[in-house]
Design a protein that fits this description.
mainly alpha
Length: 107
């Protein structure tokens, strides 16, 4: 999930650069990067399907061997970890964009 967010952000950033590119060489380079990121997004989607299948299998195993209280604690832990990873990526992206804006404004 966080990989998908990161790749989507990268794709958006590249699309913005594509529109802003003035020199033809830059446009070609950005188009190649865009295609590469689009391919990475497709691969990430396939990986996500595999990860989800493993998560289901892990849940089945946990349900066989643990009590309901432990299962609920495990689910809370996993959901919290996912949320924190996504929030961290989003915060890192905001910081990167803010630094980029500061750099542009200080020119």
């Amino acid at each position: 999930t966080s990989l998908m967010v990161l790749l989507s952000v990268s794709l958006g950033r590249l699309e913005n650069n594509l529109y802003a590119a003035v020199v033809e060489k830059n446009k070609d380079l950005i188009k190649r990067k865009k295609k590469r990121i689009e391919n990475q997004i497709q691969e990430a989607q396939l990986l996500e399907v595999g990860v989800e299948a493993r998560a289901v299998e892990v849940s089945r195993i946990i349900e066989k061997h643990f009590q309901m209280e432990d299962i609920l604690e495990y689910r809370r832990f996993v959901n919290t970890k996912i949320r924190l990873i996504i929030e961290t990526r989003e915060t890192e992206e905001r910081i990167r964009l803010a630094l980029q804006q500061i750099s542009i404004l200080s020119r």
